[in-house]
Amino acid sequence: xxxxxxxxxxxxxxxxxxxxxxxxLVVMSSGKTILQETKMTSNSYRTAQANAAASAxxxxxxxxxxxxxxxxxxxxxxxxxxxxGGLDQWHAANGKEGSDGxxxxxxxxxxxxxxxxxxxxxxxxxxxxxxxxxxxTLARFYFINTATYDDDNDNTTPEINNPCDANGKLxxxxxxxxxxxxxxxxxxxxxxxxxxxxxxxxxxxxxxxxKGSGPEQPFVTQGAAPLNGTTDIINRYTNITIWAxxxxxxxxxxxxxxxxxxxxxxxxxxxxxxxxxxxxHYLNNEDEDQNTQTMSNAKNGTGLDxxxxxxxxxxxxxxxxxxxxxRDDLDEESGNAKEEIEGMAEDSSQRFTxxxxxxxxxxxxxxxxxxxxxxxxxxxxxxxxVIIIVEGSxxxxxxxxxxxxxxxxxxxxxxxxxxxxxxxxxxxxVENNVAGTPKVIFNPFGSGGDDGLGGLGxxxxxxxNTYTVVNGSWKDW
Length: 477
Description:
- This protein is α/β, with parallel strands linked by helices.
- The chain has helices at 10-69, 265-274, 311-314, 318-325, 337-347; strands at residues 95-97, 103-106, 125-129, 137-144, 148-149, 160-161, 178-186, 193-201, 219-221, 225-227, 232-235, 242-244, 248-250, 255-259, 292-297, 306-307, 351-352, 363-367, 374-375, 386-390, 395-399, 402-416, 420-430, 439-442, 468-469, 475-476.
- It folds into 2 domains: 47-202, no CATH class; 219-467, no CATH class.
């Protein structure tokens, strides 16, 4: 009988096919996952690039605001100084015209895209980060100093309040003291973008680095106070001309003066207004015979306007003496006032290691002379006073200089020539040969009074830090 052989192996074939299909699905799924992870990693990398570029633009902007914008560009669309590129960073030429007729926001013309990864419109300050041989990212920044602005820049929605307009700082079109920085960055292929905003302010009484009204005397020294030559110390605001931790000595024909009996700060300011003069005409007058009475000199001896041998002053350490006049709470936490303020000068590019021409400079200026000794020339005006701080134990010479502001010397002061200091001088030591015909004319600074001038009248401009970033104003999206 013929036998019939049954076919075998169908189950094995089916199992093999199923395993192949399963393996294929796993491989496809893994490939898709890897592709997705690659895209996510790439997107994260591009996002990080954009964020780093925007952060760099913000750093550029805060320094640019101090060194180029304040006092250089006007907010009415007119560029004062073409040497910095002819750009009006306050109101861009391609800006949207608001209801007040002011161009207040740069429109997004020709900004970088994937299809055209090029610099933004020239109506903003542009930055290229990196080199052509590596990876390059693009960034830009601009400032908004109007009280309202179109935050989404669509030219249709109502304008919203500028978050930097605290206490009406931006209510005046020409206010150059505060602004909102807008910084934008792009990745190397322009597929990712990042926008940051932050408030900055300049010359703002709320951020004065001086305590209260600042120094209350024209001449302060921790050591002896020898006056020689024909030095004149004039104070028409208060009754103290010299505050010293050591002896007061007179050699030659120096004189100290205070306000005449019967005059007040208000009456002198009223007299100036009646005469059509500047409000400080009689208070800061260089003429020592104008509305003054002589107090201390070789003939009269030491008058009541001199406070010598004060142990409170003499026994202060260098840091404690500094803290008498400067704030230590300028950042979020109290700390070392010297370190904080020196850091501000460094950030504002106004920290120097050698004699520097200070013409046109204002605000905080810090010297750390590498050679120990240094000379200071003309600096500051009534409109833009200075605070000059000189670190170290060397000799600081002020000879035939015209300075408006506060000078703080950690070493030894040598005053001479026909120098005129309108404000205050503070030093740890004074060289015992102050000679020539220098004058120190007191002017108060700071924000200690309702009038914003320390309650004493004084300069219409308080001496402040060059700029500050407003804490809590950072925003990113």
